[in-house]
Design brief:
Layout: H1 3-6, H2 17-36, H3 43-50, H4 61-87, H5 92-112, H6 121-131, H7 139-158, H8 181-208, H9 216-223, H10 231-256, H11 262-279, H12 284-302, H13 307-331, H14 334-356
Helix pairs in contact: 2-3, 2-7, 2-11, 3-4, 3-7, 4-5, 4-6, 4-7, 5-6, 5-8, 6-9, 8-9, 8-13, 9-13, 10-12, 10-13, 11-12
Amino acid sequence: MNHLQEFFSLRPAQRDHIPAFRIAVGVALPLLLLMAIGRLDLAIYAAFGAFTGIYARNESPRSRFLRQSLAGGILTLSVAIGAVLSALAAGPWAVMLVATVVSAFGAVAAARYNLKPAGSIFFIFATAAVGSIEGGAPVWLATLVAFLSAGVSVVLGMGAHLIGERPLPRAVPMVTERFSRRDLVEHGLRFTVAPLVAGTLGILSMELVPQLSHPYWAMVAAVAPIAPPHRKARFFRAVHRIVGTSGGVLVSAFLLSFPTEPWQLVVWVILSQFLGELYVGRNYSLALLFITPVALLMTQIGHPTDPGPLLLARTVETAIGALVGLAVVAWGFPHEYRPRLFRRAGAMGRRLVDRRRPR
């Protein structure tokens, strides 16, 4: 299969609708409750807590409970840190630096305890997005909402085996990757450098072009390509990120082009979450057509803004971050490239020696 065909191919389905349904319900229950009590201004905190359900798909009940509990704890802590930044009215530079630290520690924890999806994309997103809110909820309330929402996802995960979610049969048994201390340090450094550089460029672009906003989207896009285990997968994750997000922005523009009530945005978020999870393991670009609207509509539910600059910012900042991620992918894994370089150098040396030998 050539590179272009990968954008139009779908991997075989593996009962993806079951975890997708569970995750969507985990998002729906907190949002519908907040809508019922008239507190959709808290929706963003609930949504980040609900992202707990994304972790530990198709794992055993015990493994899912342990890993979702850990992921939910980190997500709740990320929201709490962001809420503190919001309460302090921290500027974009402070938010970026704190979110970078969260990214590093979150990525190391995810690698150490084999959380899937890997990396720190949701942790950095929660910290930076909540930290960028002006006049947000009190710290205790934001943390409580995220904690309770995460708890709902964990409870749903505990009963997921009742609807058929279980470990997938594999031709080759999955081996849990073991990281040495050096591996974890290098891993943390990659998840520090990428968001730090991308966040810096995002803030500078915002200062140069006033229409731009949300520099943390560059940070999120920068860490997305680093998580996959192989170089080719990392490269294509960055390209898929740009292509899929651009398409997702168009989908979001269509949805936001109509006069909408808050309840309609909630419905779109729930449906988009389900569709995104349905395809995320089969075609990342296709999944981003639905994942991108989730992020954009989520910010519009409780804190509506003019969608035009929002959509522009999402496109530009994602491109900046993905390019930074590509740079980290190209130069941030030297231990993977050294053996290949040594083999090539050895082959060139042997050819030179062979040419100089008398015949």
